[in-house]
What does this fold into?
Amino acid sequence: MTVAIAARDLVKKFDDFTAVNGISFDIDEGECFAFLGPNGAGKTTTIKMVHCVSPITSGKVTVFGMRSSLENREIRRLTGVIPQEINLDSGLTVHENLMVFSRFFDIPKHEAKKRVEELLGFVELDNKKHSKIDELSTGMKRRLLIARALLNKPKLIMADEPTTGLDPQARHLIWQRLRLLKSQGTTLILTTQYMEEAEQLCDKLVIMNEGKILIQGSPRQLVADRIGREVVEIRIAKEEDEKLLALVSDSVCGHERAGDTLYFYCSDGRELMKKMIDLDLSNVLNRPATLEDVFLKLTGRSLTE
Amino acid sequence: MNLSYRIYYVFLRNLISYKRFILPTFAISLGQPLFYLLTFGIGMGAYMGYMGGKPYLEFLVPGVLASSVMLSATYECLYDTFVKMVHERLYDSLIATPVSVEDVVAGDIVWGAFRGLTSGVLMLVVAMFMGVHPASAGGVVILLALMVFVGVLFSSLSMIVTSFAPNFDFFNYYTELVITPMLFFSGVFFPLDKFPQWMKIFALFMPLTHAVNISRAAFSGESVPGLGLNFLVLLVLEVVAFVVGIKLMKRRLIS
It folds into this structure.
């Protein structure tokens, strides 16, 4: 595997606030790499430095062997960006949006025409070709953003929370499209707050908080290492914790209390569930461990804002 | 300055977006200057007879022409640029492509100048229908060049204001306290020679004063003293405003 993107000791400071605090990572060519983290963790700032729209305070990033900096138009030429905010050109129609954007990449007009037709098909917007942007639903706008990001046949795609605010159908359509692109060999960088999205799409991920990388690895391996296989949730009063823990300590490998819920982490929940039934406790749930458990364990189960 | 030929692409984007609004914008950019020509030029001109040695309408046209360019370019790079930058986040999408932030801002300045030029040309056509002509074909060429010049200058000045603007209301300070007074201190409606000395000096600091002088010379065909200075002042101001405008917008757009 060749490394597509390498970051070393990357730092970003805004006046006296440090948004990204010395992170390093490697992204292989053709893989999907996700940045997870709560709001303000530094995800968007990081990817902005990678694709050369935000100056780097210190440290360095290389993309396909080229050094990232504001002046680097070549990296931006090879990159497709699906932004978090819908910034389509509302002065133009759907078709014009794509045609005008293709000019920014120096794509010749006849070539652009062909590609725009293909891409409108790819995101299922053929019949909206001459619509104004205001007439599109949020899901359609997001799909158009994807089409726009693909105009330059990018080697690298940056998707910054691409499914925020979408209904399940629209979300699944976008996931399918992103997976298809990945299967064609495109390197994909994703930021998201949806753990399910990361599990669906990515090979490797980092969890960020307060400008630092807390852990990195593949989704499955992280869940196995940090949580185990299963989680048992019990809604009981906090005062009962000690008593209960003493009773079940030999069948769990970890626990955590958040608000009104006590979480037990274990490799097999059945034994624990039996004890719960014996104790006649209601409000008990046994489920497989997910990335969300890892995320919440690391970044805290309560609100930080 | 990281500028490239991609300025043209930004200009082109604006042109394509503009084609839907051509007629309304013609009406808007012609409205105010045309109103000055009709009321002051014909209505008031009937009482005034001659001013500065010629019929009042003839005196008025060159000044109104220069100010119509100023107004169009100014409004374009205040309100339209602000909408594109803040409300539509259009600039963000542009700078994610090989287009640099300098290209984007310069492209919008050139666009503002183009809007100024169209207003000026429309005004010129109207003036010619009213019987006021530039002295010669050479005069027309000078006028066209002047319009581009004035357009780039006032677009760039507006960019400086826009780079600080937290919202639309902020623009009122600039239009009410700078642009509107400029109309009255720059010799558009009456010659400046009856002003006391300090006001004459004050007027020299108004870029529009210099533009009006050049415009008037292009209409009369007579060389007036200080024409060289007028050109020089405009040129220096233009280069400074262009560079500063781009730098300040870059500071706002890139963080």
About this structure: Chain B touches chain A at residues 2, 4, 6, 9, 12-13, 16-17, 20, 88-90, 92-101, 254-255 (CB under 8 Å). Residues 7-253 of chain B form one domain. Strands of chain B lie at 50-51, 54-55.
